[in-house]
# Entry
Amino acid sequence: MKVTFLKRIDRYLIGKFLGTYIFSILLIISIAVVFDFNENVDRFTTYHASGKGIFYYYLNFIPYYANLFSSLFVFLSVIFFTSKLADNSEIIAMISTGMSYRRLMLPYLISSAIIACATFYLGSEVIPRGSIKRLVFENQYKKNKKNPTYADRVQLQVDKGVIAYMEHFDGISKTGIHFNLDKFKDKKLVSHLTASSVKYDTLSNVRNHWTLNNVTIRELHGYKEKITHFNTIDSIIAIEPNDFLFTRNMQETMTNDELLLYIEKQRNRGSKNLKVFEVEYHKRYAIPFAAFILSTIGMALSSRKRKGGMGIALGTGIALSAAYILLQTVSATFSINSGLSPMLAAWIPNILFTFIAWYLYKKAPR
# Structure
């Protein structure tokens, strides 16, 4: 006899779960798009946004906010369709046939795994690429803000024992003035380079290619010093224009690999403003697990048949999902502005709500 892993009842519940989840996303996000467009249509007109630009903005708007509030949609979907099953006595019928409550949870967990995988892939690979266009459009046509095009008094560690300093950098022309490059060995200065101006070569086939003008190099050997002058030299310096210019929500435009590489590179250079990037990186791993936790809570709350229908379960579910999203925001903000570990900040909501899920699961009617 052929035995399949998924029974008909499993496929039925998975279809109910995913169908309700997709329907709730389409319904709520459609309403959000209409409200957002009505609120900003005057700004779009004032700043002369093109129809094509608006179309692509909302094309990237939809997956971003759908993924951002995926936890809420999971919660509401489980409560909605499970309450309907309970009202129709379908839950009672399943359990009365000998199906254990743990076995009943299987299709819920399978559906949660599908949603978690989709959420992780979208949040780490697909949405960051679309966020580049979305943020540019928001800054230009909704907030009327431009990304910073210059930086003053920039200092960073290029390599071990190599420190670069620039008085001013213009991101449009890719040119900096009053550039210094100091090399240290055993905490002693061994070379000091100064240049009146530097320019990043955007046409070069080699990365990190800079042209330095009016260069003076001082090499120190004990008590002796050698000074060399050059009008122009080409050099490979392990810095890029993007290392000087930080834009708001820059972490949202990077894929996981890019984000991790950026964090490691900036940490090696001695940069300290990395908390927002580290929190974003760990959140992308923590948020997908919320699908398992919140679906368990939703199942436990709504599997009991009540005279009042789904009102109590729905109200409790909305309150708990709002508390989860609020806790995510508070813990991330607290980590950025204090010494709390970014990893811990990202996982605190999951840890706390795991205990809530376990308690409600044990108290659920059998």
